[in-house]
Amino acid sequence: MTNAGPGQPSSVGTSPHALRTAARVIAAGGVVAYPTEAVYGLGCDPLDANAVRRILAIKQRGEDKGLILIAADFDALRPFVEILDDERMAEISSTWPGPNTWLLPARPDTPRWLTGTFDTLAVRVTGHAGAADLCRAWANFGCGALVSTSANLSGRPPVRTALHVRLQLHDAPDLIVAGPCGRHPRPSTIRDGRSGRLLRG
C-alpha cells in the first residue's frame, strides 16, 4: 500500500492481496475508487446507506438520480432486481460482461438510496477484469455487488487515472485501486431493460 501524503488517500494495486485490502475497506464502510471499462468509478457496499450517501456527498450529487451497481456475475445483482421475460433477459445477457448498463425493475425492498426516485435500478456485469476481480474479492466479505458511479464532481468530466482522482477529489475516497481503465472512450451505455431503448450512448 502507498500513501500520497497527508490528507491523501492510500492506494493499492490489483494483486489478489491488494484487492482483499480494498474489500476490507468496503466492508468497514469505506469508499474506494477503482478503474472500470472507460473511467474511474467510486464504489462502496450498496447496502450501507452511510457509505452510499458519503459517495453522493463526495460527488456533490443528489440522491434522487439513482446509482449503478456492478458485479462480476449476474447472481450478485439478482437480490436487487426483478427478472424480465426470457426474451428480454436473453438480449441483456448477450451484452455481458461488457460496458452495457441496463435498467431493470427494482425489487420492492431495494433501498431508495440506490434507486432514487425511480422504480428501476441500473445494473451491469462488468467487462473490466480489475473491476470484476474487485467484486469477487468483495463477495468474500459482502454481497458482491458494488456501487459504481464516476469518480468526479457532479458536472465535471470523468477521470481515467488515479492521479486525476486525487487531483479532483482531494482527500476522498478512502482507498484508490490503481490500474488502467479499459479502452472504451465513454462511460457505459444505459438502456431500458423492458424496451431496449437507448438512454445514454
Describe this structure in words.
The protein is α/β, with parallel strands linked by helices and about 200 residues long. The protein has one domain (about 10-200): DHBP synthase. The chain contains six helices and eleven strands. It has helices at about 15-25, 50-60, 85-95, 110-115, 130-140, 160-170, and strands at about 1-5, 10, 30-35, 40-45, 70, 100-105, 120-125, 145-150, 175, 190, 200. It has an eleven-stranded mixed β-sheet. β3 and β4 (about 40-45) form a beta hairpin. It is globular and about 45 Å long.
Features:
single chain, alpha/beta, 201 residues, DHBP synthase
CATH C-level class is: Alpha Beta
Largest sheet: 11 strands, mixed
The main sheet orders its strands as 1-2-9-3-4-8-5-7-6-10-11
- CATH-defined topology: DHBP synthase
Summarize the structure.
It is built from six helices and eleven strands.
